[in-house]
Amino acid sequence: MNVEIIIKPELMAPAGDWTMLSTAVQAGANAVYFGVDKLNMRAKAANFTVDDLPEIVNFCKENDVKTYLTINTIVFEEEINQLEDIIISAKKRGVDSIICWDLSVAELCCKHDFPFCISTQGSVSNSLAASIYKKMGAKRIVLARECSLEEIKKIRANTDLEIEVFVHGAMCIAVSGRCFMSHHMFGQSANRGECVQSCRREFEVYDSASDKSLIVGEDYV
Fold it and tell me: Is residue 146 in some structural domain?
């Protein structure tokens, strides 16, 4: 007799401020992810500070909710010391895991024996890439948002890492972690949490060969 085993997934929700955090917990989220200061993909959000970590963790633990700190942007040389201070503080305060994709964050998490997950910004779209991150010490991979359900199924069959996928949120015309359009046009990098979503504007595309123009609507370039 074959017995089908159904594993209930962990439902994780974003928490950009206290209102979002309490709402996510009250709505039944199993986990929340949030950033502190500006080293996350929500640079324009209010964000928490390192000083908020004790209260965040205590509130979540009281409600049996896991906490994931996002440090999922590109990290520059002058930010390394700040980065390490944040990781040390997060571990000390009891944060469950870090979500990252810059290898400097992964390296410091390993140094301080702190669990980390690879963000969707890492563009993991196959099991071989997943195996590389596993060797580095990652406990989970957040697959690239471009993966289809069939591709997710195949990756799941070929890795024993925990797998996370997005089921709701903003879509993007570019491969996760690879877009430079916002920075090129406005000096605000999508890989630093500053995307102005310029791809969603209406553009006029001109073909000089046929001397014709095409209006591309707000459904993306």
Answer: yes
Kindly state the DSSP code that residue 174 receives in the 8-state scheme.
S
- Considering 156, 172, 188, which residue would you say is the last residue of a domain? 172
Clarify whether residues 103 and 22 are in a common domain: yes
Angle between helices 127-136 and 149-157 (to 10 degrees): 50
Same domain, residue pair 135 and 39: yes
Structural domain that includes position 79: 12-172
Residue 125 shares a structural domain with residue 32? yes
Count of the separate structural domains present in the chain: 2
- Tens digit of pLDDT for each residue in 17-35? 999 999 999 999 999 999 9
CB 55 within 8 A of CB 83: no
pTM for the structure as a whole: 0.80
Measured CA to CA, the distance from residue 73 to residue 84 in angstroms comes to 14
Cβ 71 vs Cβ 122: under 8 Å? no
- Residue 175's pLDDT is 65
Instruction: Tell me the two tokens of residue 173.
Output: 């015309």
**Closest of 51, 56, 3, 6 to residue 32, by C-alpha:** 56
For residue range 64-86, what is the model confidence (pLDDT) as tens digits? 999 999 998 889 999 999 999 99
